[in-house]
Design brief:
77% of the residues lie in helices and 0% in strands. The longest helix has 37 residues. The radius of gyration is 19 Å and the shape is flat. The chain has one domain. The protein is mainly alpha-helical and 102 residues long. The protein has 3 helices and no strands. 7% of the residues are buried. The N and C termini lie far apart (68 Å).
Length: 102
């Protein structure tokens, strides 16, 4: 006899996903607008914003800033933040040495 427990878990999971998207969508819209604005003025600030945005999105989505075990999984927020940080560091060093962009 089915108690409906599995159905209740599925409904709760769907409601949780919907609630998270309702919180994340305004962040994504604002984040994209800030990124475009910063990109027009400075690549360095735009890259810095990407790192901050990734961490904010992770906190809203998962409820934590960084989880060590997620570094081992491909294409997680943590991996993307590390890649963005590496690009940010390289761009900063290039700017100091060559003055190639604003």
């Amino acid at each position: 006899m089915d108690s409906g427990f599995g159905d209740r878990i599925m409904i709760d999971a769907k409601a949780s996903i919907k609630k998270r998207w309702q919180k994340r969508l305004p962040l994504w819209i604002a984040g994209l607008l800030v990124f475009i604005f910063l990109l027009k003025h400075s690549l360095i600030f735009a890259l810095g914003w990407v790192i901050i945005f990734i961490l904010l999105d992770e906190y809203i989505k998962e409820g934590y800033w960084v989880k060590k075990s997620d570094f081992k999984k491909p294409l997680t927020h943590e991996n993307i933040a590390v890649i963005a940080s590496a690009i940010f560091t390289i761009a900063t060093l290039l700017k100091r040495k060559r003055k190639i962009y604003k």
